[in-house]
Specification:
The protein is of the alpha+beta class. 61% of the residues lie in helices and 15% in strands. A six-stranded antiparallel beta sheet has the order 2-1-6-5-4-3. The longest helix has 89 residues. The radius of gyration is 73 Å and the shape is rod-shaped. The model has no long low-confidence stretch (mean pLDDT 76).
Length: 599
C-alpha cells in the first residue's frame, strides 16, 4: 500500500515538473523571456522531473532492496547532476548575465527591436493612412463647418433682418400690441400702445406704469379689475375675443379699445407667454354716442311732437266737447228761458185764477141757496155740466196746475243750474245742487223701461261747505260719470236678462263728505258688472271707449279727468273689481284761488 502511494505521488510530481518545464520552455523558444534565470529554471524542472521519473521507474520495475537497483543509482545520479547544475548556475550567476544573458538579451533586444521597427513601420503606415483619412475628414468637416458657419451667418442675418422687419412692422402697427413672458413680465409694447398709455413704458419700471394711465370697462367709469385685463386672461390660458375696455392716460380723454388676446405656445405646446392686440374704437364709440345722442334728440323731439300732437288732439277734443257743452248749455239756457217766461206767466196768474174761481163758485152757491127752483134752461145747463162735480173738481184741477207749474219751474231751475251759463268763472257753489241738477236731467234714463226696472239712486250727502270751482265744468264731470254708470247698469241688466239670470235691483250710490277740512270727497258707485283691470288703465285716455261704434266718442272721462286734475287740482280715480261694480272717486280742494290764478 505504501509503495502504491509513493508511486502515485512521485508520478504526479514528475508529471508536474515536466508540465511546468514545458510551459516555460515554449515561450522561451519563441523568444519570450530568454534569460539565464528562465533557462536555469527550465533545466531544474526538467532535472526534477527526470529524477522523480526515474524514482517512479525504479519503484515500478525493481524488487527490493531498492538501493541495489541501478535505477535508484541513476536517480541519485540525476539528483546529484541536478544539484551540480543548480550549484554551478548559482556559482556562475554573477558572470552568467555577461556571458550568457548579454548576448541573449542583445539578440532578444535586436529581435524585439526589429519587431518593434516592423510594428512601428506598420503603425506609421497605418498612422499616416489614418492621418490622411482623418485629415481628409477634418478637411471635409472644416469645409462643412465653414459652410454651416456661412449658412448660419446668412440665417442669422436673415433672422436679424426679419426681426428688424417684424419689429418695424409691429412698431408701426395702427393696432396696439402688448406681449409678456410666462412670468407676466412685459416683453413688447409697440409705439401705438405706448401712445395710448401716455408714456414710453419701455423706459419706465412696471411698478410705475399705473402712474401714467388707468384702465376702465367700456363704460369709461367702472375700473377694470386685474383679472379681467385681456393679457392677464390670456396668460391664464384663455382665448379672449373682442374684450372691450377703456384706457385713460393722465390728462387725456378716454380711449376705447377692443382687445383680442391669446396664449403663446412653443413647439412642445408649453405656454411661454401671452400676446394681446388692441383695436381703437374710440371714433366708432364717439360716433355711436353721437348717434345715440342724435337718436335721443330725435326721440325727444318726436316725443315732444307727439306730446304736442297729443295736447293738440286733447285740446281739439276739449274744444269740441266744450263747444258741445257750450251749445248744449246755450240750448238748455235758451229752452229754460223760453219755458221760464210762460211758466212764470202761468204760475203768476194761478193765484188770480184760483181767487176768481173761488169767487165764482161762491156766487154759484149763493144762487143755489136763494133760487131753489131755477128756470128750465139753467136747470138743463146745470145737469149738462154736472155742476156739483165741477165745483168739487175745479179746485183740485187748479191745484194740479199749480203743482205742474212749480215742477216746470224746478226743472228750469235745474237746467239753469246745470248749464251755469251765467257762472263761467270760478265761484263757491253747493256741490249737491250740481249733482241733483244732473240727476234731474238724467231722470228719464233712471226710470223703469219695458226691458229693465228703474235705477235707484241712493244719496249719502255729508255736510259740505260751499266749494270754489267752475260749476258748469264740474257738473259736466258729474254728468259723464253718472251717465257711464247708467250705461254700465243697462248693459249689465241686458246681459243678465239674456243669460236668464234673475235681475238684481240696479242702484247708483252717491256719497259726499269733507276730507281733512281742505278737500271734499265725492264717490259715485254702481253695482254693475265692474271694469276689468286691463281697461281701467286706459279709462282716462283720450278717445278710449268700450262702447260700440255710434254709442260714444270716448271723450267723457278724459275731459272729466282733465277738468278735475288740471282745472281744479283734484283727484279722479276708478276703483273696480270684476263682478262687483265700479266706483269713481272725485276729490277737489275747497279753496281754489291759487289754482284759479295759475290757470
Amino acid at each position: 500500500m505504501l509503495n502504491t502511494l509513493l508511486l502515485s505521488a512521485n508520478t504526479f510530481v514528475s508529471i508536474s515538473y515536466f508540465a511546468i518545464a514545458l510551459l516555460i520552455l515554449f515561450p522561451f523558444l519563441r523568444g519570450q523571456q530568454k534569460t539565464s534565470l528562465v533557462l536555469a529554471t527550465i533545466l531544474v524542472f526538467f532535472s526534477c522531473g527526470l529524477g522523480h521519473g526515474g524514482h517512479v521507474l525504479l519503484m515500478a520495475f525493481s524488487q527490493p532492496p531498492y538501493n541495489a537497483s541501478p535505477l535508484l543509482k541513476m536517480q541519485v545520479g540525476f539528483d546529484l547532476l541536478t544539484a551540480v547544475v543548480a550549484g554551478t548556475y548559482i556559482a556562475l550567476r554573477p558572470y552568467y548575465t555577461v556571458l550568457v544573458d548579454g548576448p541573449l538579451l542583445l539578440t532578444q533586444a535586436q529581435t524585439q527591436l526589429t519587431q518593434v521597427n516592423a510594428e512601428l513601420a506598420t503603425t506609421n503606415a497605418n498612422l499616416e493612412a489614418a492621418i490622411e483619412e482623418r485629415t481628409a475628414k477634418l478637411t471635409q468637416v472644416n469645409e462643412q463647418l465653414a459652410n454651416e458657419i456661412i449658412e448660419r451667418k446668412q440665417v442669422e442675418e436673415a433672422l436679424r433682418q426679419e426681426q428688424e422687419f417684424i419689429q418695424v412692422l409691429v412698431e408701426n402697427f395702427s393696432e396696439g400690441v402688448v406681449s409678456c413672458d410666462a412670468n407676466g413680465c412685459l416683453t413688447l409694447f409697440n409705439r401705438t400702445a405706448r401712445d395710448w398709455h401716455g408714456a414710453d413704458l419701455q423706459t419706465i419700471p412696471p411698478e410705475k406704469w399705473t402712474d401714467f394711465y388707468d384702465l376702465y370697462r367700456l363704460d369709461g367709469v367702472t375700473p377694470l379689475p386685474i383679472e379681467e385685463i385681456p393679457l392677464v386672461r390670456a396668460l391664464q390660458g384663455e382665448q379672449v375675443h373682442d374684450a372691450g375696455m377703456a384706457i385713460v392716460a393722465k390728462g387725456q380723454s378716454p380711449r376705447y379699445l377692443l382687445a383680442n388676446a391669446n396664449p403663446l405656445l412653443d413647439s412642445n405646446g408649453y405656454q411661454v407667454g401671452a400676446v394681446a392686440v388692441m383695436h381703437d374704437i374710440t371714433a366708432r364709440k364717439q360716433a355711436e354716442e353721437a348717434l345715440q345722442q342724435s337718436q335721443w334728440h330725435l326721440k325727444e323731439k318726436a316725443r315732444q311732437q307727439e306730446q304736442v300732437l297729443y295736447e293738440l288732439k286733447r285740446t281739439q277734443a276739449q274744444v269740441v266737447q266744450s263747444e258741445k257743452m257750450s251749445s248744449l248749455g246755450h240750448l238748455v239756457a235758451g229752452v229754460a228761458h223760453e219755458i221760464n217766461n210762460p211758466v212764470n206767466f202761468i204760475y203768476g196768474n194761478l193765484d188770480y185764477v184760483s181767487e176768481y174761481t173761488h169767487d165764482l163758485m161762491h156766487l154759484v152757491q149763493l144762487y143755489q141757496q136763494h133760487y131753489l127752483t131755477p128756470v128750465p134752461d139753467i136747470q138743463a145747463a146745470i145737469q149738462a155740466i154736472d155742476l156739483d162735480f165741477l165745483l168739487v173738481d175745479l179746485p183740485k184741477t187748479l191745484s194740479s196746475i199749480k203743482v205742474g207749474a212749480e215742477r216746470i219751474q224746478s226743472i228750469v231751475l235745474s237746467l239753469r243750474n246745470f248749464s251755469r251759463m251765467d257762472e263761467a268763472d270760478m265761484k263757491a257753489v253747493d256741490i249737491h245742487e250740481g249733482i241733483d241738477s244732473t240727476l234731474l236731467i238724467l231722470q228719464n234714463r233712471l226710470k223703469a223701461k219695458p226691458d229693465h226696472p228703474a235705477i235707484e239712486v241712493q244719496k249719502d250727502y255729508g255736510n259740505l261747505p260751499l266749494v270754489e270751482c267752475y260749476p258748469g265744468q264740474l257738473n259736466q264731470v258729474f254728468m259723464n260719470v253718472i251717465n257711464n254708470a247708467i250705461d254700465a247698469l243697462d248693459e249689465h241688466l241686458v246681459q243678465s236678462f239674456e243669460a236668464g239670470k234673475p235681475l238684481q235691483p240696479a242702484t247708483i250710490s252717491i256719497q259726499t263728505k269733507v276730507l281733512n277740512a281742505e278737500r271734499v270727497y265725492i264717490r259715485i258707485s254702481d253695482n254693475g258688472a265692474g271694469i276689468p283691470a286691463k281697461i281701467q288703465q286706459h279709462l282716462f285716455n283720450p278717445f278710449f271707449t268700450t262702447k260700440p261704434v255710434g254709442k260714444g266718442t270716448g271723450l267723457g272721462l278724459s275731459i272729466s279727468y282733465q277738468i278735475v286734475t288740471e282745472k281744479h287740482g283734484g283727484l279722479l280715480q276708478c276703483i273696480s273689481e270684476g263682478g262687483q261694480g265700479a266706483s269713481f272717486i272725485i276729490e277737489i280742494p275747497i279753496q281754489q284761488q291759487a289754482i284759479a290764478q295759475a290757470n
